[in-house]
């Protein structure tokens, strides 16, 4: 391992994940000569087909609705940037944080949460659909890159972080397949690593901030409406105090961006201080102690309360906005009808999935169809739907 990497690992806190002590990969592999295992995980994720497809998957606004709106790919990059910044200060493993952040949405469907909800409803009789579990399924099974195994064979710690939520029935299935593996903590009531906890919070910080940005940019919410959100309005007022010219009509974009920048910075500092206090109070000696402690990475109570108000505002004013709901309804129709058409006749899919579906029982066929749809980009799903139905639901 290069001297620089060795020096970085020497700076890790005792409760951080050390790649030299990883629980390993499901298929054992020789150690890379120039990279740690977590660096290798990150690189495999970046080179995966599922990661590339994120550029054409919806965050809130459909991919075709504007070039400047966030996609799942840009969201994942923003989460990784926030995660690394916090990890460095807390002396956690930055490479592991980056790997988890970049992979956490690999299993998301086209059309964002609308697509996920529709696919979950379609799969109700076949085990349901969870995007976190699908992300794990992508890296464990669905990626086809290596000749010796399915998936990309990531380390336990990266896989654990990807699976941030899991229904008990699915955790039990995972435990049967992999005793003591990534499903066990959901059954035992244990916590994941600090790196995984951090990625979960960085995800929340990122999407709250960029949904404000994209929501205002789209015209669906306004800076005037956001004055009712204390967390945002505080930074808007600070920006206006320091730069009075931003009150002019031609500078509203800069005002929005400056307020969001300050909000992001304060949330990052809040997480760092609150987490340091929790670590000092619980004093975990190592990663195993972290797993048996309560969640240690988080906001202060005051910031958590203010963040909740912002989330409620976004849900009410943006996610449930009539224009978004109208698009959501059509997107869900696309997913439902694709699922029905493929399930009725699997040969409508590409050759590989079609063959797998035809060889499976009813539940297995439905899962192959779900995998195929979940892997689609927005525009591919729309194109397939138009090809099969002749209807163009979203221009």
From TrEMBL:
Domain of life: Bacteria
Keyword terms: Hydrolase
N-terminal signal peptide: none
SMART domains, sorted: HDc (SM00471)
Database matches in Pfam families: HD, HD_assoc
Domain (HD): residue spans on this chain: 72-208
Family according to the record: Belongs to the dGTPase family. Type 2 subfamily.
PANTHER family from the UniProt entry: DEOXYGUANOSINETRIPHOSPHATE TRIPHOSPHOHYDROLASE-LIKE PROTEIN, DEOXYNUCLEOSIDE TRIPHOSPHATE TRIPHOSPHOHYDROLASE
The protein's name in its UniProt record: Deoxyguanosinetriphosphate triphosphohydrolase-like protein
């Amino acid at each position: 391992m290069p001297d620089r990497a060795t020096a970085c690992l020497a700076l890790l806190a005792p409760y951080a994940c050390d790649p030299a002590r990883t629980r390993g990969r499901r298929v054992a592999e020789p150690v890379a000569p120039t990279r740690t295992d977590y660096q290798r995980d990150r690189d495999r994720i970046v080179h995966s087909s599922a990661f590339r497809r994120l550029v054409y998957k919806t965050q809130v606004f459909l991919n075709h609705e504007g070039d400047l709106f966030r996609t799942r790919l840009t969201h994942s990059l923003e989460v990784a940037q926030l995660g690394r910044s916090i990890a460095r200060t807390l002396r956690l493993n930055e490479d592991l944080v980056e790997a988890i952040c970049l992979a956490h949405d690999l299993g998301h469907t086209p059309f964002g949460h609308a697509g996920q909800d529709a696919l979950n409803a379609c799969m109700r009789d076949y085990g349901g659909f969870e995007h976190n579990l699908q992300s794990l399924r992508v890296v464990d099974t669905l990626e086809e890159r290596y000749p010796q195994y399915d998936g990309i064979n990531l380390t336990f710690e990266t896989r654990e972080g990807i699976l941030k939520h899991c229904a008990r029935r699915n955790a039990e299935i995972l435990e049967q397949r992999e005793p003591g593996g990534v499903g066990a903590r959901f059954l035992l009531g244990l916590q994941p690593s600090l790196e995984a906890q951090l990625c979960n919070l960085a995800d929340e910080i990122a999407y709250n901030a960029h949904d404000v940005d994209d929501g205002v940019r789209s015209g669906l919410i306004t800076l005037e409406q956001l004055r009712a959100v204390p967390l945002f309005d505080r930074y808007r007022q600070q920006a206006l105090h320091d730069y009075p010219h931003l009150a002019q009509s031609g500078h509203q974009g800069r005002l929005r961006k400056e307020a969001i920048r300050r909000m992001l910075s304060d949330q990052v500092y809040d997480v760092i201080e609150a987490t340091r206090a929790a670590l000092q109070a619980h004093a975990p000696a190592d990663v195993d102690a972290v797993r048996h402690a309560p969640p240690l990475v988080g906001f202060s109570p005051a910031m958590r309360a203010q963040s909740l108000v912002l989330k409620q505002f976004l849900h009410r004013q943006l996610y449930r906005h009539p224009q978004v709901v109208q698009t959501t309804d059509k997107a869900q129709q696309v997913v439902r009808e694709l699922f029905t058409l493929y399930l009725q006749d699997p040969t409508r899919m590409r050759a590989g999935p079609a063959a797998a579906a035809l060889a499976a029982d009813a539940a297995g066929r439905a899962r192959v169809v779900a995998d195929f749809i979940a892997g689609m980009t927005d525009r591919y799903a729309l194109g397939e739907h138009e090809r099969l139905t002749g209807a163009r639901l979203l221009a």
